[in-house]
Amino acid sequence: MGNNLSLRSILDANKLTAPNFLDWFRNLKIVLKQEKKSYVLDTHIPPVLVTNASVEDKEAYQRHKDDDDQAACVMLASMTLELRKQHEHMDVQSMILHLIELFNKEGRIKRYEISKELFRCKMAKGSSVRPHVLKIVGLIKRLGQLGLAMDHELSIDLVLQSLRDSFSQFMLNFHMNRLEATLLQLLNMLDTTERSIKKDRDHCFLFLLPRLIQSNRRRKPKREKR
Fold it and tell me: Model pTM greater than 0.70?
């Protein structure tokens, strides 16, 4: 009993709200599996037994009904008050179907909005690469939380395609050498590259500055004598 209460604490700490349905459902399955009641999530309660049913059938029916009632209580206890009121008279199967219908619509809209922002994300002129890449990584994680796991190679491609033209040499080297990297490793590579680009640009400017000054002096018009 103590172990059951301890494991149920993950549901108490992460009550069901609209954005976290998938995480909540994953935690629910873990809890019910540990309590050997997970079968009620995808198995309907048998029809009401006839009066002359066998003892075995009656016991199986009652056991399933009791497990379903207990699982329903666990689910209701881990919901917000508003959701609890909507589902308090439903069995487990009915609750699951209603929740999927309820949150899949909201999740679909959110996935569309996040994916649109992700695929249109471009590095702004004058911005730094680190916050830009972290923003993309955050959008990818949010899609994962909504049930849309992004392929790793596609994630890398999205980051590279969003960069400014000043990173073109890095992208060329990355593809020619067939480099493999996690998103964090790619971020560190780009961070180093950006510092190198800035250093080269500053060095070039300092090298050309005296020539620009000298050239400007030569072009300075002479004053007319009065």
Answer: no
In contact, 162 and 187? CB cutoff 8 Å: no
User: Are the CB atoms for 71 and 40 separated by under 8 Å?
Assistant: yes
Question: Is the separation of the CB atoms in 95 and 42 below 8 Å?
Answer: no
Do the beta carbons of residue 129 and residue 194 sit within 8 Å?
yes
DSSP structural state of residue 18: G
Residue in the block written with tokens 């992460």: 14
What does 101-170 look like in DSSP terms, one character per residue? HHHHHHHHHHHHHHHHHHHT--PPTT--HHHHHHHHHHHHHHHHHTT-PPPHHHHHHHHHHTS-GGGHHH
Selected residue with higher pLDDT from 77 and 198: 77
**Each residue of 106-150: pLDDT tens digit?**
667 778 888 999 999 999 988 999 999 999 998 998 888 676 788
| Cβ burial 182-195 (10 Å sphere, 16+ → b, else e) | ebeebbebbeebbe
The reply to whether 111 falls in a domain is no
Number of domain units in the chain? 2
Residue 24 in domain: yes
Which range of residues forms the domain containing residue 9?
2-105
Domain end call among 105, 135, 164: 105
Same domain, 141 and 180: yes
In a domain, 179, yes or no: yes
According to the model, what pLDDT value does residue 71 have? 93
Q: What is the pLDDT of residue 209?
A: 41
In three-state secondary structure terms, 79 is strand
